[in-house]
Specification:
Structural class of chain A: mainly alpha
Strand content of chain A: under 5%
Number of strands of chain A: 2
CATH superfamily of the largest domain in chain A: RNA polymerase sigma factor, region 2, helix turn helix motif
Number of helices of chain B: 11
Number of domains of chain A: 2
CATH topology of the largest domain in chain A: Rna Polymerase Sigma Factor, Chain: A
CATH architecture of the largest domain in chain A: Orthogonal Bundle
Order of helices and strands of chain B: HHHHHHHHHEHHEEEE
Helix content of chain A: 55-70%
CATH class of the largest domain in chain A: Mainly Alpha
Strand content of chain B: 5-15%
Oligomer: heterodimer
Number of strands of chain B: 5
Helix content of chain B: 55-70%
Shape of chain A: globular
Structural class of chain B: alpha+beta
Largest sheet of chain B: 5 strands, mixed
Mean pLDDT of chain B: 64
Chain lengths: 213, 274
């Protein structure tokens, strides 16, 4: 099976063969390595984006994404197609990210710069890549997102990054769709409040999103 | 709409942005200037969130290689347990150093006790052999893959060795680990693999685990004759290193050429370089 093509901007696009996910899944479950390769490549960047937004940390996102890729391979035989493959993948990615966050908390070592968000960002991206571009917006959003409790951050990320609908998010997070709706709203309101007062203000308590603009 | 209604307004604005409202509900939002402003604010956040973070090609390649290696192992290995031993979860990564240190500490304690026992008995009695044997096991953390030869070899060596031989065997873990090259990144891993290929030391054959394990007690980490039980016949061992703090064996996957760092403590994959 040929590898996926790259678009001029470098992003992977599985347009070469245009096989649907379920076809690739079936082939991969049957032992087709090429199908699996294409399937993983097709979803890697989006999974990474979700992991990056949930963990708020480049290295953790890389680890979580790799862990998710391996988990997909290990669990593929048990995927029964009742949900879409994408939804299933995002559930794995979400769990991998949360696991990574738990590991990060366990290995956290206080340092003099821990109360400095810039310091955290410096450590998060030691290569310095992407630090010079759009630092303000990028950093402010990362900080605001990190300040959200998981219960708000996860549905917002799954909605705005993974583009899942409420029903899929409910399936991924095992919560009612109505709860998804309210948590996304509260999360967004908290983010808006935090970003509007980013000049030194602490992020708004997500339980009080009513102070959003 | 009063401030008391703001949470409801936020929910309506959010649902409006997500296309989750019916026509009547949309009309309510569109006629509320504050709600419209809120929708705009949420839309900006969404746009910012959805901007793709750049993904490092090397990171992507490594992750895909690790996943495909898992696939390869599962499809080429009849024994699922063996497959799991070759590629394991990243969840164990963070604890490896601790486990290795605990293993070294345990080996040291056992060795000290063994030396004391041997010195007190002044000979090769049964007790000294029993005390030394676990030391060999500690140095060789994955005996299951070659359990019988390892035990026999270790016991033979311990039984034949003079009392003073046991302690250096345990100490060699620390000294050998300390003398191993320390690698802390994929780049260094790749450079190590490249230099090893170019360098004088020839890759050792990987399928002689039993014989190698039989002499493991006298062959410390870092010795080119040491054969890790973590290495499968499909891999070529390149050498031992300390990778990100954990003693590891570096192998090249014969079929793909992928370089893999494998923890000697639990045979977990620490990292891969395509």
């Amino acid at each position: 099976m040929p590898p996926p093509e790259r678009t001029p901007d470098g992003s992977l696009a599985a347009i070469a063969t245009q096989l649907a996910d379920h076809e690739l899944v079936t082939a991969a479950q049957g032992g087709d390595r090429g199908a699996l390769d294409q399937l993983l490549r097709r979803h890697y960047d989006r999974v990474h984006a979700v992991c990056r937004r949930i963990t708020g940390h480049d290295a953790d996102a890389a680890d979580a994404t790799q862990e998710a890729m391996i988990a997909i391979v290990r669990s593929l035989d048990r995927f029964d197609g009742r949900s879409s493959f994408g939804t299933w993948v995002y559930r794995i990615a979400t769990n991998a990210s949360l696991d990574e966050l738990r590991r990060r908390k366990r290995r956290a070592v206080p340092s003099p710069t821990d109360d400095n968000e810039h310091g955290q960002h410096e450590r998060a991206d030691p290569s310095g890549n992407a630090r010079m571009e759009g630092l303000g917006d990028h950093l402010a959003l990362d900080v605001a997102l990190r300040s959200l409790p998981d219960e708000y951050r996860l549905p917002v990320v799954l909605r705005d990054v993974a583009d899942l609908d409420y029903a899929d998010i409910a399936a991924v997070l095992d919560i009612p769709a109505g709860t998804v709706k309210s948590r996304i709203a509260r999360g967004r309101a908290a983010l808006a409040a935090a970003l509007s007062g980013e000049a030194g203000n602490q992020p708004t308590d997500p339980e009080r999103p009513s102070r959003a603009p | 709409m009063s401030d008391d209604q703001l949470p409801d307004r936020a929910e309506q604005a959010s649902a409006y942005l997500d296309g989750e409202l019916d026509a009547d509900q949309r009309a309510v939002v569109e006629n509320d200037a504050d709600a419209v402003a809120m929708v705009d604010s949420f839309a900006r956040i969404r746009a910012e969130l959805s901007k793709a973070e750049p993904v490092d090609d090397a990171v992507r390649s490594a992750a895909l290689a690790a996943a495909l290696a898992e696939f390869d192992v599962r499809h080429e290995t009849a024994d699922p347990a063996a497959a799991a031993a070759v590629v394991t979860s990243l969840q164990s990564r963070r604890h490896r150093t601790y486990r290795v240190l605990m293993g070294v500490a345990a080996a040291t304690v056992i060795a000290v006790v063994g030396v004391a026992a041997l010195n007190s008995s002044k000979g090769n009695d049964a007790n000294s052999t029993a005390l030394v044997a676990p030391d060999q096991t500690a140095e060789q953390p994955q005996p299951k893959l070659a359990a019988a030869p390892a035990t026999a070899g270790a016991n033979d060596a311990a039984g034949a060795a003079p009392a003073g031989t046991a302690a250096p065997g345990a100490q060699s873990i620390e000294s050998a680990a300390a003398s191993l090259p320390e690698l802390n990144s994929k780049e260094e891993l790749k450079a190590f693999a490249d230099s090893f290929r170019i360098g004088a030391a020839a890759p050792a054959p990987a399928a002689t685990t039993a014989a190698a394990t039989g002499t493991a007690g006298a062959t410390p980490l870092g010795d080119s004759s040491f054969q890790s039980p973590c290495v499968t016949p499909e891999q070529t061992e390149l050498g031992q290193v300390v990778y990100r703090g954990a003693p590891a064996v570096v192998v090249r996957v014969n079929s793909s050429g992928t370089i893999v760092a494998i923890a000697v403590a639990d045979c977990a994959v620490l990292d891969t370089v395509p």
